[in-house]
Specification:
This protein has helices spanning 4-21, 26-44, 46-68, 76-80, 89-118, 135-149, 159-171, 187-190, 205-218, 222-251, 255-262, 266-274, 279-294, 298-309, 319-336, 345-371, 377-380, 393-404, 409-434, 439-456, 466-472, 479-494, 507-523, 532-540. The termini are far apart. It has 24 helices and no strands. 45% of the residues are buried. α14 packs across α16 (345-371). Residues 1-25 and 122-131 have low confidence and may be disordered. It is an all-alpha fold.
Length: 541
């Protein structure tokens, strides 16, 4: 009698009306507000400031590259935009300065993020301690930095023009393993470096298929082809952002430090994305394959590495070491099941190695059949001998001999390259056998093998160091070791010209690169290694 007649209608009205009028997109609006708050907090923090500095550095590289980068020989796009003056005289000088300012900005931003990531620098303006920068923050920073570079002309290298020309050969019915781009005259050939016009393709069939697909869509449009080739590289970057931190679980490193060192590195982003190198795909696939094998997905890991080999043969160095990891897991499985040690180690090795080779063969044969090519890329690998610079030990040895003997550089190079090739084979065999007992040893073996290849091969280029760097980042390293790597990566970033020419034969260029590299290395531990702020403070007094 007292409540039912009054409350039932009121309760029904109050509870149903608000439910009926709730806005449907409320969850999405909440997500947007969360992201806005997060972005505000992030960009007010020291790592956010560094991310913005790196972004503006990438913008400067993109703009300056219009004049100082590896621009096309005839660029109607620049002419129609009235920017062709950037390629000549004072315009070229201005563009070069802008590029170098952008590179230095990205290096400064990278080192600042490094101090925060490893916890060696001050962290002001927030209550969070210095070492709590997250993986997601670093991954977002990678995206922020590469966004302008996606639209830049090729930077520090002309290789993308060769990629497009080789893809066009396959598109037009030629075999890139038997003929060079010179057989197909046109706009794409016009931009290939003269040293590579008659060189057959040294890359795997999957990469040739990618080049064929891109040139089939973009035709002979160099700008569209370059941007499309960059977009094709992005899956490799995504794989690196997953695999490199993931490997630290098995190698003892710190995920954020690994991502900062191996992925956010200007040497990697500017050369592999800005320079459009297929190392981006190869290294990403190789790292992902190793991570999968470490997680006991052995067949899947071998398949992924095999795809990497079908991009560029260098990834194949990892395969023999993955057999050891597979055997280690088999031994651990038997121990966990109380089955004792491997009864027939040699037979187990043969079985695992045979299965790995079979998986690799299936992937590679299928890729070659799809591209309609054979294995001619193996003979084309010798084309790298055309590259001569101070980054490879055989070339250094040859130069030193020519200083004290009457022999020519070409005569001595034949000998020094042969000696280093023999040494390389010996090191690879010894490393494979020596580093076989644990997962960490096996990955360390791959790392040493890559370092040996980079140093002892007939030719080396700065971006080749991304191969061992992706693996080294997974291990725990002291701050002094990280300082050495920062200095080395900075020096390698600076010793080439924005247009792709080599700066190693200019003593002033090398001296400037060395000075900046030393300062960058010291800055990982000290905010102001040159004591410029202290001098400024004293001058004001």
């Amino acid at each position: 009698m007292d409540t039912a007649p009054v409350t039932t209608p009121v309760t029904s009205t109050v509870t149903t009306a608000p439910v009926a009028t709730l806005p449907v997109p409320e969850p999405a609006a909440h997500t947007v507000r969360w992201w806005v708050r997060w972005a505000g907090d992030f960009f007010r923090s020291p790592e956010g400031h560094a991310a913005l500095l790196g972004f503006w550095g990438a913008v400067m590289i993109t703009f300056g590259g219009l004049g100082a980068g590896a621009v096309r020989r005839n660029d109607p796009l620049l002419e129609s935009a009235h920017l062709s003056w950037l390629r000549f005289g004072h315009g070229y000088a201005l563009a070069t300065i802008v590029v170098w300012l952008g590179v230095l900005s990205m290096i400064i931003a990278w080192v600042r993020l490094g101090r925060i990531t490893i916890g060696t620098g001050p962290y002001r303006g927030t209550e969070r301690p210095a070492s709590t920068v997250t993986l997601n923050e670093l991954r977002i920073t990678v995206g922020i930095w590469i966004l302008p570079l996606l639209f830049a002309v090729p930077m520090f290298s002309q290789d993308v023009y060769s990629y497009l020309a080789q893809g066009a050969l396959l598109r037009d019915g030629y075999d890139p393993y038997t003929v060079g781009p010179v057989v197909s005259p046109g706009v794409l050939l016009d931009n290939v470096s003269p040293v590579w016009t008659t060189t057959t393709a040294p890359y795997g069939p999957i990469f040739l298929l990618m080049g064929q697909a891109i040139t089939s869509i973009t035709g002979d449009n160099v700008v569209a082809g370059t941007i499309a080739m960059r977009l094709v590289m992005l899956p490799g970057l995504a794989l690196m952002m997953w695999a490199v931190p993931h490997m630290t679980k098995h190698l003892g490193g710190k995920p954020t430090v690994a991502l900062w060192l191996a992925v956010l590195n200007p040497l990697v982003l500017i050369h592999l994305i800005g320079g459009v190198h297929n190392e981006m795909l190869m290294v990403g696939l190789m790292a992902a394959g190793i991570a999968l094998v470490l997680e006991r997905h052995h067949v899947a890991g071998v398949v992924v590495v095999a795809i990497g080999v079908a991009i560029k043969a260098t990834a194949g160095v990892a395969l023999p070491f993955l057999v050891w990891i597979w055997m280690i897991h088999e031994r651990e499985r038997r121990a966990a099941e109380n089955k004792g040690p491997l009864p027939h180690p040699i037979r187990t090795f043969a079985k695992i190695a045979g299965l790995g080779v079979s998986v690799f063969a299936v992937v590679f044969v299928a890729a070659s059949a799809a591209a309609g090519v054979g294995i001619g890329w193996l003979t084309a690998l010798s084309g790298s001998k055309k590259i001569i610079n101070w980054l490879s030990l055989p070339t250094i040895m040859a130069h030193m001999v020519t200083w004290v003997t009457p022999f020519s550089l070409g005569e001595v190079l034949v000998v020094t390259r042969a000696l280093c090739a023999v040494a390389l084979v010996g090191i690879l065999i010894w490393t494979w056998w020596r580093y076989r007992n644990t997962e960490r040893q096996a990955v360390m073996g791959i790392l040493i093998a890559f370092v040996a290849i980079v140093i002892l091969s007939p030719a080396a280029l700065p971006w080749y160091y991304s191969w061992p760097l992706a693996l080294a980042a997974g291990f725990a390293m002291s701050t002094p070791t990280l300082m050495v790597l920062v200095g080395l990566c900075t020096w390698l970033m600076l010793v080439f010209q924005p247009g792709g020419s080599i700066g190693l034969y200019n003593i002033w260029h090398v001296a400037a690169a060395t000075f900046v590299a030393v300062v960058a290395a010291l800055s990982l531990r000290k905010v102001d290694p040159l004591r410029l702020r202290a001098d400024s403070a004293r001058s004001k007094q």
